[in-house]
Amino acid sequence: MARCPICTADAKTRATNGAFPFCSPRCRTIDLGKWLNEEYRVAENHTDDPSSAAPATNDDAEDDSSSSQQQLCHTKSDD
């Protein structure tokens, strides 16, 4: 059986416990309060390694989309 992450009591299965993985709605509310009060935080991946940076964008793709937009503008102005 799973343990409640707030009070460590036994938490019944999802089929019989609407507050799962918590043991009760009270513990679920306590957990929500901790998130809202920023007691919990999702860690960010900080790295100084430039090889892990996002790949460079393709400037050609931007040029193609802008020419398509210009064509659409010409089509609209011709009407």
Give a description of the structure.
It is a single chain. The chain is mainly alpha-helical. It has a domain at 2-36. Helix content is 41%, strand content 5%. The protein has helices at residues 25-36, 59-78; strands at 2-3, 10-11. It has a two-stranded antiparallel ribbon with strand order 1-2. Strand 1 (2-3) and strand 2 form a beta hairpin.
Short description:
With 79 residues, the chain is mainly α. The protein is built from two helices and two strands. The C terminus is likely disordered.
How would the blueprint of this fold be written?
Layout (H helix, E strand, L loop, with lengths): L1 E2 L6 E2 L13 H12 L22 H20 L1
Antiparallel strand pairs: 1-2
Structure annotation, total helices: 2
Shape designation? elongated
Strand line-up of the largest beta sheet: 1-2
Q: How much beta, percentage-wise? A: 5-15%
Order of helices and strands: EEHH
Total beta-strand segments: 2
Give me the Rg, rounded: 26 Å
Judged by helices, strands and strand pairing, the structural class is mainly alpha
Notable traits:
79 residues; mainly alpha; elongated
